[in-house]
Design goal:
Length: 681
DNA sequence: CTTAGGG
DNA sequence: CCCTAAG
C-alpha cells in the first residue's frame, strides 16, 4: 500500500471582494455604492443583494506563491515542503474578465468624474431601476505574519498561514485566499434593483477618491430604509440553488436569487427556507450558549489521483455559472439550519475570525485590537461607515470592506499539482458558498433583530457612531449565532479535541460565551489575526496542542494512510460526531465485478441483494448490497439503451445481454410469485 | 436491517 | 452513490 503524505489546508475564510473587481494587476478594492430610496428598499435587501451578487460569481482559484507572480509546481511544492513560507491563493473569476475585458463599469472607475454609472433596467417593463456604482477595488490585504505570532518568526510556525486578514498594505507576503468578483456581474445584478430612485450621479461622486485602494464598498442607505423585507426569508444568495430543488421565490426581484430565471425542467418540491427573522429569534433564544458550528470541507483524493471534494454536484442550474461550480444540490440539506446536526454536516461553519483592527478610525470605542468574533457560519463582514460619506440629509452610507466566507479546510497530497490544488480550492469554495447567505445586522454591539424597524428607529443615523454598525454573513445552515461587530462582548470559543487512530485530530470550537479554551490558544486568538493555517503534518502526533504553535485555531491533520482508509475518515467522523456527512468515493464497477454480479443475480434472482452481496461480494467491503442493487439497476438501464448513449467503462454486450435475460426472467418469476400469492389471498 | 425506488 | 419510505 502506498502511503501518501498529505497536506492539510485550513482556510479560515476567503476574502471576498466587496464589489466588482477590476484588473487582477491593479488589485484595487472595489467600491460599491448605491442609493436607496426611503422605505423602498430595506437595508437587508441592499446588503443581501450585494453579497449575493458577489457570491454568485464564478470563482476560479489562482495560486500564487511568495510575493512574486511565479507559478509552477516545483515552486509550489518547494514552498509547501519547506512549510515555512507563505503562499497566496487567489480566487479570481476564471479569467473571464481579464484586463481586456473591462466592463463599462470598471473602465471608468479611475475617472473621478465618471465614477458613477447608470444601468437602466434591461427589461422594458416600465421599471426604471437604476443604481449607481463606484468601483475601486483593492483586494490584496496583507499582513505581516511576524507581527501576528507574538514576535515569533514565521518560520517557527512550521506551517503556512493562510488568509490573514489585515488591511494594511505593505506587509510581508502572507498567504491569503481571495475571491475576486466579476465586474460584469455587478452590472447584471444592478438590474435587480427595481423601484429604486435615480440619484444624481454628481451627488455621489465626491465621496471618495476612486483611486484610493483602501476604499471598500459603499452602500448608501436611507435613514428610514426598513429592515423588514428581508424577513420574508429570501436568502441573499445561494449558490447551491439548483433550479429544481430550491424554490424560486416569486418576487419582483427573484431573478436575483439565483439564477433560475428560466423555467426548470423539473418542478420540484417547494422547500421554503426559514426566514431570517425566525432564525434570528432562534438565535437569540440560544444566545451565546450554543455550540459554534464548525465544519470542514474535506477533500480526499480518489484512487485515480483526481481530487474530489466531499460533495459533487450533479446538476448545474446556475445562471451564468460554469461547470466548476460544483455545488451539490443535496448539500442544501446540510445548510439547513433547522437541524443542528445537519448544520454541522458539511461546513464546519463555526469560524473564528479575528477582525484586524488596523484602521483605528473605524473602531468602535472601547473595542480592542484583535477582537474576536465568533461565527457559526460565515465570517462577519466588516462594515465601516464614514460619516464623511454622507450625501444628502437622510442617508446613511455604509462601507463594507470585504465579505468573507467561512473557514475551509482541504486536504491534498504533497504530490498534487497546482491544477489539482486549484480545483480543490475551487470546489471547496463553491461548496462553502453553496448554502446561500443571509445578512445579519448588529448595531452598537447588539444584533438588530427587528427587521421591521427603520434605521432611524434602530438608532442608525448620520450622527451615530457608525463604526458600531456591523454586518454579518450567515450561512443558511448556520444556527445563526449572533455575531457582533462591536467587540464589547466577544464570546471566545473553546476548543475540543478529538483524536482517533484514523480520523484526524480536530479541534472544535465551542461557543460557551466564556473563556474555557486552552490558555495558550486564548492568548493566541486574542492577540493574533492569523485566519488560518496550512499544516503539513504527516503524523497525528503533531495534532497535539502543545506544539508551540500559537496561531492556529484549527488543527486538522491526517495521518498517512492508504486511499481506502482515507475514505473511511468521514465515516468515522460521522459515527463519532454525527455530523460529518461524507460522500463515498465513487468506485466504478469493473467488468469482472459486473460479471460476478450478473452471475450472482442469475443464480439468486433480483431482490435478494443481501444474498448477492454475501455470495459474490463478501470480501468487497466497499460494495454494499445497496450498491449492488444500484449497479444492477444501472446495468439494466445500460443494456436497454443504445451503445452510443452508454458512458463510462464499456460493458461487454454479452454481459449486458445476460443482464437483460436475467432481469426479464426474474422479473417474470417474481411477478408470477406475486400473482400467485395475490391469487391465493 | 433490507428492499425498492427516486434523485 | 445518496436518500428515504416501507416492511
Amino acid at each position: 500500500m502506498v502511503l501518501q503524505q498529505r497536506l492539510d489546508y485550513g482556510f479560515n475564510g476567503f476574502q471576498v471582494p466587496a464589489t466588482a473587481r477590476r484588473t487582477r494587476s491593479t488589485m484595487r478594492r472595489a467600491k460599491f455604492q448605491r442609493t436607496v430610496d426611503k422605505n423602498q428598499m430595506c437595508a437587508f435587501d441592499v446588503l443581501a443583494t450585494i453579497a449575493g451578487k458577489i457570491l454568485q460569481e464564478n470563482w476560479n482559484p489562482t495560486m500564487t506563491t511568495d510575493t512574486s507572480s511565479e507559478k509552477g509546481h516545483s515552486r509550489f511544492d518547494k514552498e509547501c515542503q519547506n512549510a515555512n513560507k507563505t503562499f497566496k491563493a487567489e480566487l479570481s473569476d476564471e479569467g473571464s474578465c481579464g484586463e481586456k475585458c473591462f466592463s463599462p463599469l470598471s473602465s471608468q472607475t479611475n475617472n473621478p468624474n465618471c465614477c458613477l454609472k447608470e444601468f437602466p433596467h434591461p427589461e422594458s417593463d416600465g421599471h426604471s431601476g437604476i443604481a449607481s456604482i463606484v468601483t475601486s477595488s483593492s483586494f490584496m490585504e496583507r499582513v505581516d505574519p511576524n507581527n501576528l505570532v507574538d514576535g515569533k518568526s514565521h518560520k517557527e510556525m512550521e506551517n503556512i498561514t493562510s488568509n490573514a486578514k489585515l488591511d494594511s498594505p505593505g506587509y510581508a507576503e502572507v498567504s491569503c485566499c481571495k475571491l475576486d468578483g466579476d465586474t460584469s456581474r455587478v452590472k447584471d445584478e444592478l438590474h435587480k434593483f427595481e423601484n429604486m430612485p435615480i440619484e444624481s450621479g454628481t451627488k455621489m461622486c465626491c465621496f471618495e477618491d476612486p483611486l484610493d485602494e483602501n476604499h471598500p464598498a459603499l452602500i448608501s442607505l436611507d435613514d428610514n430604509a426598513k429592515l423588514s423585507r428581508y424577513n420574508d426569508g429570501i436568502p441573499c444568495s445561494s449558490l447551491s440553488k439548483g433550479c429544481g430543488d430550491v424554490p424560486v421565490v416569486s418576487r419582483d426581484d427573484d431573478e436575483f436569487f439565483f439564477g433560475c430565471s428560466h423555467p426548470c425542467t423539473k418542478p420540484k418540491s417547494f422547500r421554503p427556507m426559514a426566514s431570517i427573522g425566525d432564525r434570528i429569534r432562534k438565535t437569540l433564544a440560544s444566545k451565546y450558549s450554543k455550540v459554534a458550528q464548525e465544519s470542514k470541507v474535506d477533500i480526499h483524493s480518489s484512487s485515480d489521483g483526481y481530487f474530489k471534494p466531499t460533495y459533487h454536484s450533479k446538476k448545474y442550474c446556475y445562471k451564468r455559472q460554469r461547470s466548476q461550480m460544483n455545488i451539490p444540490l443535496k448539500k442544501r440539506k446540510l445548510f439547513n439550519c433547522s437541524s443542528v446536526s445537519n448544520s454541522k454536516g458539511f461546513l464546519r461553519s463555526g469560524g473564528i475570525y479575528y477582525s484586524p483592527v488596523n484602521d483605528m478610525s473605524h473602531n468602535a470605542p472601547g473595542s480592542s485590537p484583535g477582537r474576536m468574533r465568533e461565527d457559526c457560519g460565515i465570517e462577519s463582514l466588516e462594515a465601516h461607515q464614514q460619516s464623511a460619506l454622507r450625501c444628502g440629509g437622510s442617508r446613511v452610507k455604509l462601507r463594507i470592506r470585504s465579505f468573507r466566507v467561512p473557514e475551509l479546510s482541504i486536504e491534498i497530497p504533497e504530490t498534487a499539482t497546482i491544477g489539482s490544488l486549484k480545483r480543490t480550492v475551487m470546489d471547496t469554495v463553491t461548496a462553502s458558498l453553496g448554502g446561500g447567505l443571509h445578512i445579519g445586522v448588529s448595531f452598537q454591539g447588539k444584533k438588530v433583530t427587528d427587521d421591521s424597524k427603520t434605521l432611524l428607529q434602530t438608532g442608525i443615523s448620520l450622527d451615530n457612531q457608525l463604526d458600531a454598525f456591523g454586518f454579518t454573513l450567515e450561512h443558511n445552515s448556520s444556527p445563526s449565532l449572533p455575531r457582533l461587530c462591536a467587540a464589547n462582548s466577544p464570546h471566545v470559543p473553546s476548543l475540543e479535541i478529538h483524536q482517533s487512530p484514523i480520523s484526524p485530530a480536530v479541534i472544535h470550537r465551542r461557543s460557551q460565551g466564556n473563556f474555557d479554551m486552552l490558555p495558550e490558544l486564548q492568548v493566541t486568538n486574542l492577540g493574533n489575526f492569523v485566519e488560518s493555517d496550512l499544516i503539513s503534518t504527516p503524523s497525528p502526533i503533531n495534532a497535539s496542542l502543545d506544539k508551540g504553535r500559537k496561531d492556529y485555531k484549527t488543527l486538522y491533520t491526517v495521518p498517512e494512510m492508504a486511499e481506502e482508509e482515507l475514505a473511511m475518515i468521514p465515516v468515522l467522523q460521522k459515527s463519532k460526531r454525527s455530523e460529518i456527512v461524507q460522500r463515498r468515493i465513487r468506485r466504478p464497477f469493473s467488468v469482472d465485478e459486473v460479471e460476478t454480479l450478473i452471475q450472482a443475480v442469475e443464480k439468486l434472482g433480483i431482490g435478494r441483494w443481501r444474498d448477492v452481496k454475501i455470495l459474490a461480494f463478501e470480501n468487497a467491503k466497499h460494495r454494499t448490497y445497496v450498491d449492488l442493487k444500484d449497479k444492477w439497476k444501472t446495468l439494466v438501464h445500460t443494456a436497454r439503451i443504445s451503445p452510443q448513449q452508454r458512458r463510462g467503462q464499456p460493458v461487454p454486450q454479452e454481459l449486458l445481454d445476460r443482464v437483460l435475460i436475467a432481469h426479464a426472467y426474474w422479473s417474470q418469476h417474481q411477478t408470477k410469485v406475486t400473482a400467485q400469492t395475490a391469487s391465493r389471498n
